[in-house]
Amino acid sequence: MLTKVFVALLAISSAASLTVPVHDTHRETLFEAAHNARQLLKDVKTGTMASVYPDSSDLSGRPFAMMEYHAPCYHNGSLTFILMPISRSTQNILRNKDHHATYTVSMPAEGIWSPMSRGRVALMGNMEFLKDLPQNEIDELSECYTTHHPDAKYWIPGRADSPHTSIWARLDTDSIYYVGGFGDTHYIGPIPVDLYAKSEKQVIKSIGAPTEEKTSKSEDTDQQQAGDWDLVRGGSEFDWMNEVEAQGQVIF
């Protein structure tokens, strides 16, 4: 009899814990979501880069997504990447005149009963390929990136013995979508870019952070083609777009 009473009380207690009144449950605010998104991108250093196949491809218009490294090296939340012409993502981005890309990061789900309850964020924007950087910015980017990804020291841009050509790139975000988890307790929806940029009280040291002048689009920028860029690898110049074509000729 006592056993039945105990089981009944346990069932009542469990049911009560699953039906907490709404007014007693804190729901993640927009401001908290902006901060949590910034923190997520600092804590989790790998994500998924999404791009679209160009018109020249048999897969024209289809989305493509693949795992990528990032590093949070800019105080405004822009992410740093090392991109390579051998990468399908890089090829797709370069062939888009605005270099559009979307990058998503999710909280680790290992050991979690419901991964859908975990936070994730999507950053949409354009990839800025960084050429002609002053040496101090190159050194700072290298230090920042390899702090987050020690193995990347073997393919740092400009390294003479690197197995692949690579270049520094920065994702400048113009739209953010955030899912904190389940909608009854977490924020789900867009996050204003300016709020995201200012949400972190202790920001990372700025490394050549983009200014309005740098990030504003002009007719010249819109018309710029990847083939105009002469980059340096191992002390010699090469044409970045030709390198992409060489890497991609077997799949186009």
TrEMBL record:
The keyword Nucleotide-binding does not apply. It comes from the Eukaryota. Residues 32-197 form the CREG-like beta-barrel domain. SUPFAM superfamilies: FMN-binding split barrel (SSF50475). Coiled coil: none annotated. Keywords: Signal. Residues 211-220 have a biased composition (Basic and acidic residues). Residues 1-17 form the signal peptide. The keyword Disulfide bond does not apply. Residues 207-228 are annotated as: Disordered. It holds the Pfam family CREG_beta-barrel. This is CREG-like beta-barrel domain-containing protein. It comes from Kwoniella heveanensis BCC8398.
